[in-house]
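Newbie here. two chains, one complex. Structure please?
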Amino acid sequence: MESGLNSQTDVLRAEAVASLPARSPGSLLRPIFREETFFLILSVFIGVLSGLAVVCFRFAIDWCRIYLVGSGATPSTMRLLLAPSLAGLVIAVLVIHVFPGARGSGVNQTKAALYIYNGYIPLRTAIGKFITAALAIGSGHSLGPEDPSLQIGASLASALGRWMRLSRDRMRLIAPVGAAAGLAAAFNAPISAVLFVIEEVIGRWTAGILGSVVLSAVSSVVVMRWFMGSESLFRIPAVHLERPSELIAYSILGVAGGLASVAFSSGIEKIRPRCKALPRWTQYFQPALAGLLIGLIAVLGAPQVMGAGYEYIDEAMHGQFTWQMLAVLAGLKIIATLLSFVSGTPGGMFAPTLFIGAMLGAAVGGAEHAALPHLSGSPGTYALVGMGVLFAGFLRAPMTSVFMVLEVSGNYSIILPVIVANTLAYVISRGLQPAAIFDVLTRQDGLDLPSMEEQREEGILRVEDAMRPMVDPVLEGDDALASVLSQADKSSTDNLLVRLSPTGWSSVSKEELRRMAAEGKGELSLNSLFTTRQIAYLHPDHSLDTALRYVDRWPLVPVVSRADFRKLEGVISQQDVLRRYRDFGEG
Amino acid sequence: MVTERSPGGTLAASENEPDRGRYAGRKPASLALLLVLAVVFFIAVSGLSRLYHAQQEALGNRWFARGVADLKAQRFDRAVSEFRTALLYSRDNYSYQLNLAQALIGAKRTNEADAYLINLWEREPENGLVNLELARSAAQKGQTDQALRYYHNAIYATWPGDQEVERRDARLELIEFLLSINAKTQAESELIALAANLDDDPAQHAHAGDLFLRAQDYEHALAEYRLSLKSESHTPAVLAGAGWAAFELGRYPLAERYLQAAVSADPSDALSAARLKTAELVLQMDPFRRQITVAERHQIVIEAFTTAGQRLRECPAAGNSNGTVLPASGQQSLGEKWETMKQQLNGQGLRRNPDLVEAAMELVFSIERQTSIVCGAPTGTDMALLLIAKLHEGN
């Protein structure tokens, strides 16, 4: 009997198990492969692949340099003249006929992918950028590998996203994730890369994208260090600030850096459209001519301006040039970079910016030392601060500029000079040249991408700008329906707010109150009637965008204090919001 | 120009959210494929990386070898350029940086050299060669304290190969530096420490003797020369040095012996020959030396007195003084004293008054000292008389 019961139970159990849906491996992995988690895992792969691509890019640049310019530090005159000009010809043909998307630095292209093309960057652009930029930088054009690396990373990420068939939202975000990976690997500085992408490409901080950007940047740097070692781009000398009064000396550097930034960006702003406006056939020769002129500068005694020039930044940091020579190099590098960039040669602006900043910084520091020998800052300190100054003034990335110097130097004690000098440079540059260089380039290309700088400066409309005081009486939740009818009758508007106890708000029309009274609910308290009909409330500091989501649902939304949710600061309606937006637009 | 317009692929991806079930089922396979792709790419880049690094190393070594050759040939500017090129291929290479610093020092670009050396010193503060180069650089710039600090670091630092030899050489260099800045006392104490650690090598002892001689520590100099001569007794320079040390110590018989040996070993050594002549004169003209007859002594005194008179005539300004630091007024001048004594100073007078020998020689010494002050260092017999005066000072 007992065994019969057991067997019956077993059968029932078996039937129950059989009736459950079969659990496939896919369903088991479903929680792990939710899109958010999947995107994070994908970010790591993007970082690894971008890191590998940037490593190859570095190899390609060095091989181009060795085979085109020569392995020595002082190449022959013939090579100095021929290598950049002949490479310029090849680059022009490739850019015009094979890789039209490879032109320029790469930052704006990545922004365009984010804002216009739903994260789409053709893989061909990455290949084109890789080849043409390696040729350009390796042959001595005054450009850097960072922005191309950024674009290569973004392009790889975009290709992976397409392959994975990510949703449109994710596709839009994937290009910046790849961009951060590419830049981090090129710079060997993950924090700066993340900050730059957030500050200049995405323009906003959101937890969803931040995690992916950080993961990709870190994994690409790990790959980079695996193959290229963990040494930073420059040997950092001892950095110290003995007397706070020396900040004045760094302020002078900030002013000089601001002016140099304006000169540099004005040059690009004025000359680039003229070069683009020249007949199409000249575009075949513009990079070659730029290369020839850069070669000429090198032959005339400044070979340091060729290529990215990191080794010379290193030398400047260690006091291996006189301050006069440093000033000359800063000026010549501005000219050389202008020539390369406006001619449409693919390559980045980061390295030249750092070069100019380092030379200018060390020159200003050297001149100040000559005048005031007691100053404690070494040329290396001034060069480091100078790099940040140009970054803030020319690229207009103030946050990145500060963290870049800290990350590269690994020395926190430099922070005060960096902040002081960078802020001055940024303010001067912004005052004399309202549009940032990336925005200028975008508009010259006929696009209208959102300007991150303008977004940062843009005033946000808040609820407090549109709300109005509540002139009509507010009904208390503890009162009985019958007792508030007379109050309601005195009200000038049809809708009334009800303050519920212990907390919460509701709204009711006069007509509804009367109907409820007629239904015999006059003795009931408003709390009991409206607790289930609570409405949303806002705070004065909420943005009007937030308010818009609520004001169409209720005719009147209460605006309450953050300290006391029962304390009414005012009310806001859809009309109030629209009126405020209209006034703002007209203003 | 930004990017091309998106083709249909993107729109397909973006138009619809992928079906959840299909999405989740496809992802593991996609990730697995991605992993394979990453591994393949990684392996390919590893291969490229090996090629790249091998080439970089080869180029670095090639330029380094050229730099070393130019450094040896003292073509410092070329060496600097070559070491810099080598560093392009191996930026943190210790040896490349050190050689570049040496080339920069050779090219008198000490500030640039210091940048590299300080960097190296921060990496390995106990490295002997780096400390020594920093000391040399500081010495070139006249930063004595810094130079001394780095020299001392170098002496107690770690050296590749034979540490004792390297440390001794570093100390020798420090001594040379101290002597060059006339810090003889410090040089002497370093020399004493050096001498305590010398091997039996006669050359080392000879070198130490030379340095002691320059530090004016003649006693130690003579001792080192003697140690050297124990093994190699015919080295002319060592014999000359020993002769000079003995000469300076006033040990003229010994000086005469060494100098005679030095001159016979190297007849072209004019300095030793001159010193030998002076030593011989001192020995001949000293009336207080033993084992001479009274007559000989008297004869020497008379000759010395005549020599002094001659010197006084050649230096009349000295003749007007009284031979002391006191004013001449109220006392006889040296010239008057000499004239007065001249009447008595002959063989008969000396035999009658034996004390006259002492008095006459006292006057001779006063004249020689005074004339050397007023008219400059004497030569020949006057020099010998002055040295005899020094020899018997305080007796």
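Moderator note: Residues 294-391 of chain B form one domain. Residues 85 and 99 of chain B are 12 Å apart (CA to CA). Thread marked as resolved.
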